[in-house]
Amino acid sequence: MHPDQHKVAAARLWAANRYPYLASAVFALSVDAVEGLGGIQVDEWWRVHLDPDVAGRWDINQLGGELLHLTAHVLRDHAGRAKAVELGDTAELAHWVDAADAEIGDDFPVDLPRARPSATATQLGCRDGGLAEEYFRSGDPLASRDGDQQWDCGSGAHGRTGPFDPPPPSSDRGERRAGVGREQQELIRQQVANDVLSADGAPPGLRRWAETRRSPTVDWRAELAAEIRRGVASRRGAVDYSYERPSRRAAAMSEIGGGHGIVALPSLRDPSIDVAVVCDTSSSVDDTLLSTALAEVEGLLRAAGIARVDVLACDDAVQAVSRVRRIEEVQLFGGGGTDMAAGLAVAQDRRPRPSVIVVLTDGFTPWPSVPPERCVVIVGLLGVDPASGLTPPDPPTWSRTVRIEATRSGPNR
Ligand SMILES: [Zn+2]
Predict the structure, then answer these.
(1) Mean pLDDT of the chain
(2) Stretch among 15-19, 94-98, 158-162, 254-258 having the lowest mean pLDDT
(3) Position 391 pLDDT exceeds 50
(4) Phi and psi (nearest 5°) for 91?
(5) Ligand 1: distance of its center to the CA of 320 in Å?
(6) Of 132, 387, 403, 412, which residue is the least packed, with the fewest Cβ within 10 Å?
């Protein structure tokens, strides 16, 4: 018996609406039925295992609350952190999960509806606002709970595979592969962190978590990858690019896929997506940085299985357009003034029409006042030499901006 798909979809939608900045992660979970499990768990590959009998007794809000709770475990990589702690017996495992649950407690207001109890910092004898490692070290283990498996949030919370866990996903290929691979997990974490930081009213615990991901190692490559992923996903109707809330269609799509459900943050492997890259070749642009950024975009698109890429070299007019398979093939012309609006206009007139346009520019350019129709625009804002004392105007609000700096070398992933 499969868990009621409508109920799962409704719970997911409830969760994503309630916490829109977590939506990317909530929609990345897959949900499968596991008879006899006695509850709900998540594994290290973001696969939720749900006992259909138990799910039948929960209402939609409770199921949504449980999905949010498990989302927090995988976002915070409690499995990876548990391995670093080197847990011993089951009692230690349970104590770790309690510590992780207490850490999650700060992420949500007290009224998060849950079907299962979970530990709080206070119960462990600690002040809240801490990390699972601190709670684990200095907290008092809760009294033994023989026969009660409610504490077990799964290997996604403690890193130890249990009897109900299916084998890890065997292949990185295939769009409907159940489970989220490690690299994709990192991208989703980065995306959620960005969403948390740009949201109003995200809880302090989550903001702290997001801040740690922003740290000096903010990697424009990861950010750019996340934006391109989101842009392509949104063109496929899977995520609402506006961040406001998932579309109804996303909810419907998330239920496609039968027994495996639900990978609504799809992999990028989609040959039907066309992407245009507009390169600012005006004289103010740092050529080395432009080449680096372009090579990165190429790598991302190639990894995404996107074969057709239009590259436009543009200063105050479009100088060259090529349809390329490798970006080294492109000759960049230009060197005059700057008008990226001209580049966008030409890009939009290409056939097939691009769904995603990436603009690589230093930002000293006019922009069109209205966004291109049915198209996501991602601006890779190339860093300007600080010695110049110049600051470019912000790109338009209808675009997504990733700041690309020259300071660090080499891909950080
Ligand atoms: Zn938990």
Answers:
(1) 78
(2) 254-258
(3) yes
(4) -65, -40
(5) 55
(6) 387
From residue 7, how far is each of 23, 60, 117, 239 by CA, in Å? 17, 6, 21, 20
> Cβ-count burial of 264 within 10 angstroms (0-12 exposed, 13-18 middle, 19+ buried)?
buried
Q: How far is the CA of 87 from the centre of ligand 1 (A)?
A: 16
Ligand 1 mean position to 155 CA, how many Å? 10
Residues near ion ligand 1 (Cβ under 5 Å): 101, 153
CA of residue 49 to ligand 1 center, whole Å: 13
187's CB contacts (< 8 A; 6+ apart) are: 222, 225, 226, 229
* C-alpha radius of gyration, the chain, whole number: 23
CA of residue 41 to ligand 1 center, whole Å: 8
Residue 258 Cα to ligand 1 midpoint, Å, equals: 27
The three-state secondary structure class of 233 is helix
Distance between CA atoms of 388 and 376, rounded to whole angstroms?
31
* Ligand 1 centroid, distance to 388 Cα (angstroms): 51
Structural domains of the chain, with CATH? 1-264 (no CATH), 275-404 (3.40.50.410)
Q: Do residues 47 and 32 touch, judged by C-beta distance below 8 A?
A: yes
What gap in Å lies between CA 263 and CA 257, rounded to an integer? 8
pLDDT digits (tens, 9 = 90+) for 224-271: 877 877 776 666 654 444 333 334 444 444 333 333 333 333 333 445
Asked if residue 291 has pLDDT above 60, the reply is yes
Helix (H) or strand (E) holding 196: helix 182-198
